């Protein structure tokens, strides 16, 4: 046998404890190969965020685009402070949102702690009470209502946090891989399980050695029931979540090796590489017994396509292929093998739905209402072009959301390209489809919107208020485009919008890191 979760289901976001019920969600641009070149996340495949946990920073003279692979922030120096073009449709939508739902301000914020270098800090979990984050050398829980630190558990070294964690929890237990070497290798040698309900370490254990199957920083573990499943190039190790005891290791004679895994509800999915037999996507139940297998189709070169990632398990929606090349998005019936390809999903027209690090890393796509919703890449609009808004003085970027029907593969709706507006999908915990419109230098301001999966209609959930936009220290937060990569992540939960950096730098210690916005009661 050899096998992240998605934020659950779909439907309208509901009311919560953080506010009232809301809603019915200049110079040339980046150089070739930069953030939006081709059918890949901004910046291409995530630039070794998990492979080395080091982030490359690209600075462009007047328009600065940071990082990447899915997340960027837009900043234009000079100008009039954001008042130009304030009558754009996006700016008008913001003003209407303030009138209808109110303006949110910072409910709480947490400064960045110690970071010895540039390092990725994207692993996190949301519980009933806390936002829990894996930070350099520690796991920390913050109260979702106040931002106060609830507890902290030391894990690994402060200067070496390159190994990944499970993206889900099982009865509030999470698995963290830890490096024990000198920081120069890409290996993870140890497993630590933490109870994020109590803030206590459950167990620490060495990963069993497997010939040709060392666990690397790209091998993301999964917690499933009472087991921790750790993938590698040789297959998976299975350890007991409470004791660290080894349940199984991959056989060197196995015909297939499951090299990436992901948890989707009650199913564990695995991408298995089977030599000349090609690639398979396999499903396992809670007892790690096989439920179904699906062999991937062949690509243009006649070779079976690898499973890049899984967007959804029910219905099953997968992305096949390799980063930097043409990929295929399709619905699959694993019982019959029938597929419904999304033929219009081609390189350059849409942002890659998934990151491909572990099954389920698909922050730029959602499946809802029998549709798959994807993002188009940002289009640069300069003030002197025909698409510029009246009075526009600064370069801006625009994009839209597009949905495809999973029964036909045909386009179902578009939100439309709107002056002053870019849209990013936001992870949610309550089953909705939510998007964020970042602030830009032409008068658009931060706006959280619900998305009707049936029609693509947008409705305001929260308008980020003027104080946050006037605070230079929050500039990167309110202007963030694209979540779930090496720049920022976000969570919408019960009327609370939390944004946090996923890259820490020594120079940014003390700067705002985790910031929560809420409407006044």
TrEMBL record:
The keyword Chloroplast does not apply. It comes from the Bacteria. Residues 106-340 form the Pyrrolo-quinoline quinone repeat domain. Residues 1-48 are annotated as: Disordered. The keyword Membrane applies. Residues 14-34 have a biased composition (Pro residues). Residues 1-10 have a biased composition (Low complexity). The chain crosses the membrane at residues 54-75. Keywords: Membrane, Transmembrane, Transmembrane helix. This is Pyrrolo-quinoline quinone repeat domain-containing protein.
